Amino acid sequence: MSTCARSSQVEDSGTAGSPRTIKSRVLDTGASLVQDFTPVKQVCAHLHAFHVYANDPTRCVEANHYCTHLTEDIRQCLIYDSPDHNARLIGIEYMVSPRVFVTLPQEERKLWHTHEFEVKSGLLIMPAPAGVPTSVWEAAETAEMRDVVPLYGKTYHLWQVDRGDPVPMGPPQLMGSFTTHGSVKMAHEKGLDGLLTGRNQKFGVDHHQKAKMRENIPGVEKHPDADAALK
Fold it and tell me: Which of the four, 82, 161, 179, 208, has the lowest number of CB atoms within 10 Å?
């Protein structure tokens, strides 16, 4: 299935299993009041982008990143198919600074992707919370994008929701980001246009406007080993 697909609500997506029972909901509510979720509480940023399959760049999926900073050089992100309460956890992404990236073995570096194009094109956004003035949030988002531009990411998806799998099936899939206008055009022909339009409407953004706002973000010197899986 070589198409871009926006995930729907879990109840409508063919996910395996019966609807949640009242007992299940009550038990979860009780646990949330007494247990400590420290690792999850360290999430400090929600980034929205689109990931492409390394073995088939015409396939792409919505990727909501919920990221934690381990250090100034390493971030780790949980990837969900939507920002909704019943979102499916579909993958993980690690991001590292250039100074960490260059220490990796050459074969390892080939598994990592760059972020400059998706930042500068407006494909990567940081959705604004309700009630925050647009001008204030845009300044914060642009600052975040400056920090993300030089980072390298390694992403695996475990659940291929775009093909309708009811549970995570098969081996993990190496994913990448859009890195050129050519890759975007190829994906547009397979459905990215509708996916991007839906994202823009959902969060009230215009990626063309985002691109203009980010024109002054300096470019970076990308390591030649990065993005190899998508070439």
Answer: 208
